[in-house]
Amino acid sequence: MTRHRREDELKLKVLRLQIKAGVAALERGDFIEIDDADLDNYFNGLIAAPRFPEAN
């Protein structure tokens, strides 16, 4: 098996795990609903938020 094929298989495995996690979150109600009118503000808030907490 080529390196490229192994990498592709690993990417698919990770994607499947992420899909399962997302479906499980939806099934347990772990999400928020956002009106279309508020969507831009929500995304702007995500962009403005720091990605990693600052170390103290």
Essential attributes:
56 residues, mainly alpha, 2 helices, extended
Overview of this protein structure:
The model has no long low-confidence stretch (mean pLDDT 89). With 56 residues, this protein is mostly helical. The radius of gyration is 17 Å and the shape is extended. The chain has helices at residues 3-27, 39-48. The chain has one domain (3-48).
Beta content comes to: under 5%
Helix content: 55-70%
Structural class comes to mainly alpha
Give me the number of helical elements.
2
Query: Which residues sit in consecutive blocks of at least 5 with pLDDT less than 50?
Result: none
The number of domains: 1
Average pLDDT, rounded to a whole number, is 89
* Principal-axis shape: extended
Number of strands: 0
Helix and strand element order: HH
The largest sheet, given as strand count, sense and whether it forms a barrel, is:
none
Distance between the amino and carboxyl termini = 47 Å
Radius of gyration: 17 Å
